[in-house]
Design goal:
The chain has 618 residues and is α+β, with helices and mostly antiparallel strands. Helix 2 crosses helix 3, helix 2 packs parallel to helix 5 and helix 8 packs across helix 9.
Length: 618
């Protein structure tokens, strides 16, 4: 109960925003503010029961807040809130956001807040909506993320989008005077009845008024209160992320070091170098964080790694007199994305040089694999008693020569599970996955990414490793390479392979790059689209086009689509039609506008080609 209560108090602005924007705009601002408070406060006890059964407290609260805000609520009596006053949020952007979401269902509005404002992945949002009783959680998420938030763009949205900060004004004063007189008469009658009841022995003690606790900020920075997880928790839990990590390192009992780390986080001294992943707050913790590591990963270097209730990973580093803080998000981390974190990279944070990583306690083996040499066996790395490994990961000199870590999980949690991580400069390495062609042997029904450790996956990543140079290692948690089509090229030039690389951020955002690779040649980029559902779980249909020049010198307009594409049509500067998933026609004359490419799916719906403007939405 206390853990859930602390989360309610610490994140109360966010819970209010979730409830307020989920409630229908037709209720009016005054009623929505009061109902949002009630929805949040009534979520405490049911969320505590869910958490007691092993559910994540954050997810439990999200579920219960959405359930109450999206469901039917009893009308509010007139004395709830501040009687005689009308209240409304001081954040004007909330009204704009409410109007943007007015046409959506309650669960779609909730999905919008969870994905667009809270930064959850679409999969997690759909799971929460399902728990909250949404009849079509996937459809609600799809509808909610389709609305792009305009309010507070580029600013601190947590500060300006808080419906608990309100304006007040008096209601109709004359009407209020009449109601007051009537109310006093009623209260007199009630008092008389109460006196009679008391005299007859029917009275009872008044119910205590609950008091809202305030987070003890100073206590959160006390090294004696740090959360330390027992060493074998990971082997007996259904939740494998950073919360299952024990405290490791040779200085976990060094109170002076821990005090300096927490004090620096609380009030960074002048000269402290601070870096933060996108959309990651650097504010001090509101409750005691969890200690993951305290030790010396290098000569003269001391490092402390902490995890707070908001799933922020914080690395404190001392190197001589220099101090630094690095912040990262770990939303929805799992057995692969919580498998490793970087303690020290080269000299300080230099890109080249030895990299010291701390591995999850469930990692049984680790090895370095050269992506540029997929046929070369990986080179095993010794894992220290404290869970650290040292390698040259992240120091690849060029495209196709990117080293990566291949890890295997302990058989205590899963058998024969190996996966690939690439150090791209962030606090955590990036998980690499692969989705093969639908017609590939044994992959007829494959729709979800698979681990990139098989022969075909390694060969494909060996050819596409250059794309990793464009990935923001601080923001991205996983990169999937999806081969979605193979097409015959004109003039008998062989077959081209179409692929989509999707970089999924810790915030849930996805950026894609679509390319076509002719045999023996360099890939041609067909589209780059930021912030899109394309090539992901909620964007499994894709169409892209590119201009390719044949060995003869002639230019052709090519296009290809995913497995559900039945026909492709070009209009505008190129007019042609092709049945099936691939298309080829003479390209438009130089200087002409690009053609409009449209696909018709077997379901009867249409799909436009991916580009930087449309994103290829249906």
């Amino acid at each position: 109960m206390r853990q859930v209560e602390a989360v309610v108090v610490e994140r109360y602005p966010r819970w209010m925003r979730l409830a307020y924007l989920t409630l229908p705009a037709k209720l009016g601002r005054h009623t929505r503010v009061l109902r949002a408070h009630r929805a949040v406060q009534q979520s405490l006890y049911p969320a505590s029961r869910r958490a007691a059964r092993g559910e994540d407290p954050l997810d439990a609260l999200r579920t219960e807040v959405v359930r109450r805000a999206a469901g039917r609520m009893l009308p509010l009596p007139p004395w709830v809130g501040v009687w005689g006053l009308r209240i409304w949020p001081s954040a004007e952007g909330l009204d704009e956001a409410s109007q943007d979401l007015a046409a959506l269902s309650a669960f779609a509005r909730a999905a919008h807040v969870l994905c667009r404002w809270e930064g959850l992945s679409e999969e997690t949002a759909a799971r929460i909506l399902a728990s909250a009783g949404a009849p079509d959680p996937v459809g609600a998420v799809r509808g909610g993320v389709a609305v792009v938030p305009q309010a507070a763009a580029g600013g601190d949205r947590d500060a300006v989008m808080y419906p608990g900060h309100v304006h007040t004004r008096p209601a109709d004063l004359l009407l209020r005077r009449t109601r007051v007189r009537t109310g006093w008469a009623g209260l007199g009658a009630l008092a008389l009845c109460a006196a009679v009841a008391t005299a007859s022995g029917g009275g009872g003690a008044p119910a205590p008024v609950p008091k809202a606790g305030a987070p003890a900020a100073l206590a959160a920075l006390d090294p004696g209160r740090l959360v330390r997880v027992p060493g074998r928790v990971w082997s007996d839990t259904g939740r494998l992320d950073f919360t299952a990590w024990p405290a490791r390192g040779g200085r976990t009992a060094d109170r002076a070091l821990l005090t300096r780390a927490l004090a620096t986080w609380g009030t960074p001294p002048a000269g402290t170098a601070i870096t933060a992943a996108p959309a990651t707050a650097t504010r001090p913790p509101l409750q005691s964080p969890q200690l993951l590591y305290a030790g010396q990963p290098g000569k003269g270097v001391s490092v402390v790694v902490l995890l707070d209730a908001d799933r922020r990973l914080v690395r404190y580093t001392e190197h001589g007199t220099a101090r630094s803080l690095d912040f990262a998000r770990t939303d929805d981390a799992n057995v692969t994305t919580a498998a490793s974190l970087v303690l020290r990279r080269g000299s300080g944070n230099a890109e080249a040089g030895p990299v010291v990583q701390l591995l999850a306690p469930w990692i049984a083996t680790a090895a370095v694999r050269d992506l540029g040499a997929p046929a070369t066996p990986p080179r095993p790395l010794p894992i220290g008693a404290d869970g650290t490994v040292t390698s040259q990961v992240g120091s690849g000199a060029g495209c196709g020569m990117e080293p990566a870590l291949e890890m295997a999980s302990s058989a205590r949690i899963v058998e024969k599970h190996a996966f690939l991580l690439a150090d791209l400069g962030g606090l955590m390495p990036v998980h690499l996955t692969y989705t093969p062609l639908p017609e590939a042997a044994g992959a007829v029904h494959v729709r979800q990414p698979r681990e990139a450790t098989g022969k075909a996956a390694l060969e494909r990543w060996g050819r596409e490793a250059c794309v990793l140079r464009e990935v923001d290692g601080q923001a991205v948690r996983s990169v999937n390479l999806w081969d979605f089509s193979r097409a015959d090229l004109p003039e008998g030039a062989g077959q081209a392979l179409w692929s989509c690389v999707r970089a999924t951020h810790w915030t849930g955002r996805g950026d894609v790059t679509v390319s076509v690779r002719p045999p023996g040649g360099e890939p041609v980029t067909a589209a780059r689209v930021p912030e899109t559902a394309a090539c992901g779980r909620f964007g499994q249909h894709v169409l892209a086009g590119a201009v390719w020049r044949a060995p003869s010198g002639r230019a052709y307009q090519l296009a290809a689509g995913s497995r559900e594409v039945a026909e492709i049509t070009a209009s505008g500067s190129v007019r042609a039609r092709a049945t099936g998933r691939t298309f080829a026609a003479p390209a438009a004359p130089p200087g002409a506008a690009p053609p409009v490419l449209t696909a018709h799916l077997h379901s009867g719906t249409s799909l436009t080609a991916l580009d930087g403007a449309s994103g290829g939405r249906d």
